[in-house]
Amino acid sequence: MLLQGSYTHKLDAKGRIVLPARFRDELGDHVVAALVGSSYISVYPKSEWEITVSRLTEASMSNHEVSAFRRAIIASAHSMEIDSMGRILLPQQLRSRVNIVQDVSVNGNVEKLEIWDLGVWNEFVSEMYPIPNEVTRLIPGL
Q: What angle do CA 96, 98, 31 make, to 5 degrees?
């Protein structure tokens, strides 16, 4: 699976977002939205969510911090179907935690999507570029 690219969208009055068409085939009909990062909502295809939960469960067996992190992520998770118009409803609870109101950036991140408030995303991007030489040296062949 390779979800990549960045798209700007608006939430409708009910908090729904149309997922970019190029992502929908990769995502399938069922997704899970959860708060994995502090600035965005992660949206996983159901199969990738199951892999993520398995990794969290395995790692939490020997680490109390990971166990607490797992507990918070699982509590935030919402399973949903993508409707016939390619939309999902982003729960108010998740939107509030990451301050998403209307304008968002939907970004592919390999096995999942990240939905960011557009202003927060633009700030993140402006801080990242140009990419520091120290970072590029850590990645062989980049």
A: 90
Q: Structure pTM? A: 0.90
Q: Where are the domains of the chain?
A: 6-137
> Tens of pLDDT along 97-122?
999 999 999 999 999 999 999 999 99
Tell me, what amino acid is at 118?
A: L
Domain formed by 6-137, architecture: 3-Layer(aba) Sandwich (3.40)
- For the stretch 66-95, pLDDT in tens is 899 999 999 999 999 999 999 999 999 999
